Amino acid sequence: GLEDATLEYMVWYDIEDGWDYGYVEVSDDGGRTWTILEGQHTSDDDVSGNAYGPGYTGRSREWKQESIDLTPYVGGTVLVRFEYVTDAAVYRDGFMVTDVSVPQLNGSMDTGEWLSEGFTTALRSLPQRFIVQIVTKGADGEYEVSRLNLDGDNFGETTLSGLDAPDREIVIVVSPVTPDTRHSASYTLEFLR
Q1: Residue 66's pLDDT is what?
Q2: Strand positions, DSSP E, 63-167
Q3: Strands 94-101 and 21-27, how do they pair?
Q4: Claim to verify: residue 52 and residue 128 sit in the same structural domain
Q5: What is the chain's pLDDT, residue by residue, as a tens digit (193 residues)?
Q6: What is the DSSP string of 6-62?
Q7: Is residue 110 in some structural domain?
Q8: For residue 88, which of 31, 77, 144, 189 sits 20 to 30 Å off, Cα-Cα?
Q9: Residue 53's domain spans which residues?
Q10: Is residue 113 part of a domain?
């Protein structure tokens, strides 16, 4: 049998410092109760009173190798979970974990079923999608909204008529709608006469 065990993984985080936290937790009773584990890069600072225990907060700025001692749980069956807890005020890019292992198990770790409740498995880049809407104000003062259809390359074109009419207003609304990211998206609008 094993004499010791270590949970190893890579972690990256950009979390509102002192307000929001990422945690790694273990349960030895089938998930009824959970214990927060302390890692090399977790912080027990709790200036706002929001922390449940040692957690990741602030910015890692790069992927960091993490190693957590699981020796107290050797000989039993445990569940491990990663949890990200935020308030509703400010949220940043988040909490990411990869390459999870227990090296002492020599690849025999039964990972069971991965439940990604609230987490998303993401590739290095996410394809950007847009919704483009054209809002026009007619002579009667009423507004009309129409959607510009875009192809798979996010290209679309339309003809806008009546631009010289008095009281004519046109607003073009470009909305990036790729899920699971809050990074800015670039686009180009071109107007031809």
Answers
A1: 97
A2: 64-69, 79-85, 94-101, 130-137, 143-148
A3: unpaired
A4: no
A5: 788 999 999 999 999 999 999 999 999 999 999 999 999 999 998 888 889 999 999 999 999 999 999 999 999 989 999 999 988 787 788 888 988 889 988 765 555 666 666 666 666 667 788 999 999 887 788 888 999 999 989 999 998 877 777 777 889 999 988 876 767 788 888 888 7
A6: EEEEEEEEEE-TTT-EEEEEEESSTTSS-EEPP-TT-B---TTS--SSSBB-EE-SS
A7: no
A8: 31
A9: 6-105
A10: no
DSSP SS3 for 72: helix
Q: Which of 73, 105, 137 is the last residue of a domain?
A: 105
| pTM of full prediction above 0.70 | no
Tell me whether residue 21 is in a domain.
yes
Contacts of 15 (CB under 8 A, 6+ apart): 21, 22, 56, 57, 58, 59, 84, 86, 92, 94, 95
- Kindly state the tokens that stand for 189: 């609008």
Is there a domain that residue 147 lies in? yes
User: What CA dihedral angle connects 42, 48, 52 and 56, to 10 degrees?
Assistant: -20
Q: What are phi and psi of 71, to 5 degrees?
A: -55, -40
Which tokens is 164 given?
A: 């010289």
Q: Is 71 helix (H, G, I), strand (E, B) or coil?
A: helix
Q: 98 and 15, same structural domain?
A: yes
